[in-house]
Write a structure and sequence with these properties.
Length: 413
């Protein structure tokens, strides 16, 4: 544990330095100031002892764990729930989340912090979502005999558990009472490590996107923008994605006047939006910014530069291009798929089981260049039967994989 704890300390010092010029790092540091005093006060005033503690790394993991959290609260409205985040991108968006009695940052993973946190909160059980393996917290939970569950996880051969230095991570895995996996391969890998507590439940994100699809936000301006058009939605796009899309859009627009493009960048800070605006202007493309709150859109390109409703925007699309495939990895492909949108993405998708699934079903398509993107989109524009059949495949895929939440709830109860 010495090297692990040293790494945690170095990480903290690095963030302290980065906070001098990086807004996200500053949020990370500032959000944890006086956390002990704040936690003690909240536990006393809100009577949070015996709460269920949920922990998510960021917003994506929160959406994954959300169906389970909300099901617990719906079944027992008196049950107190404490929700922690590691990342500002999760906390800042969900800090007022109504199903949790307290939302806060996870303290830095030191042994003293872990014991203080648990001694004050005294949770009934703890639930970690997907990839959270904070060793000091897990060992402290185990020592205090607090049942801890890991939900919607995927175990991969490249993870620390299978490395020569992974002994403590393997011990941490053994502290979970039940590990609910997304796939059977993860079960086999757990068993190869001598972990017998794995159970196949599936991915709770399928349940979550079905929830969204059943009652999406109604966005009148975007609905009017999309009427009688072939709408390409770029979800969580990065620079390389946008460059390919814009090249393809120009080619398609010259041939099909009813093509429209909605771009929802992964980062919506001022500098990134300015970069995107310059890229569009460079190609003489007129566009609207969603934040301008215009009642009517006359141009064919719309930039979504606000957060919180991309999952509902997909209901107005024809196809989706999911960002990240030319960077660190693709973002959520289930949010558009549930609405029946074929999904296109770059080559970095190997960590995501659902990407392999939709490719195999011919509901998802890997794109390597703007010419490939143009051809695939043109096929969908000109062949309405192809688009309709692909849409049905996408919808059915999501619905056939629902039900993980109920499986997990049986074990938790």
């Amino acid at each position: 544990m010495f090297l692990y704890n040293l790494g945690i300390y170095v990480f903290y010092i690095g963030l302290k330095l980065a906070s001098l010029f990086n807004p996200k790092a500053k949020q990370w540091i500032d959000g944890r100031k006086q956390w002990k005093e704040n936690l003690k006060h909240k536990v006393e005033t809100l009577q949070l002892e015996n709460a269920i503690w949920f922990h998510c790394a960021s917003l994506g993991e929160f959406e994954q764990g959300r169906p389970v959290l909300e099901k617990i609260k719906q079944d027992n409205s008196n049950q107190k729930i404490v929700l922690t985040f590691f990342s500002p991108s999760g906390y800042e968006i969900q800090k007022n989340y109504s199903f949790a009695d307290l939302v806060m940052y996870l303290p830095l993973d030191s042994a003293s912090n872990a014991h203080y946190f648990l001694d004050i909160l005294k949770p009934k059980i703890s639930i970690f979502v997907k990839y959270e393996f904070w060793l000091n917290f897990l060992f402290a939970l185990d020592k205090k005999q607090i049942p801890t569950f890991l939900i919607s996880t995927v175990i991969k051969k490249h993870q620390s558990f299978f490395k020569w230095y992974g002994g403590n991570f393997r011990k941490a895995l053994a502290t979970y009472k039940i590990i609910y996996t997304q796939d059977s391969e993860s079960l086999l890998l757990l068993e190869s490590l001598g972990i017998k507590t794995g159970q196949l439940a599936g991915d709770t994100r399928f349940d979550r996107v079905l929830q969204i699809c059943s009652s999406p936000k109604q966005l009148k301006e975007i609905q009017e923008f999309s009427n009688n058009s072939f709408v390409i939605i770029a979800g969580s796009s990065w620079q390389k994605d946008e460059e390919l899309l814009i090249e393809s859009y120009i080619s398609l627009k010259a041939k099909h006047v009813n093509v429209k493009l909605i771009i929802a960048p992964h980062e919506i800070d001022h500098s990134n939006i300015e970069r995107l605006k310059k890229l569009l202007s460079k190609h003489d493309i007129n566009f609207h910014l969603y934040s301008d709150n215009e009642s009517h859109y006359i141009h064919s390109v719309l930039v979504i530069n606000t957060i919180g409703f991309l999952s509902s925007v997909y209901q107005y699309g024809s196809v989706a291009f999911i960002g990240g495939g030319f960077d660190n990895g693709i973002h959520n492909i289930l949010e558009p798929t549930v609405f029946g949108l074929p999904v296109l993405f770059g080559p970095n998708y190997k960590k995501f089981n659902e990407a392999f699934d939709v490719i195999k079903l011919n509901a998802g398509f890997v794109i390597l260049s703007s010419s490939e993107l143009t051809k695939q989109l043109n096929d969908f524009i000109e062949d309405k039967v192809l688009l309709h059949e692909t849409s049905i495949l996408a919808k059915n895929y999501v619905r056939s994989h629902a039900g993980a939440t109920q499986k997990i709830m049986v074990g938790l109860q």
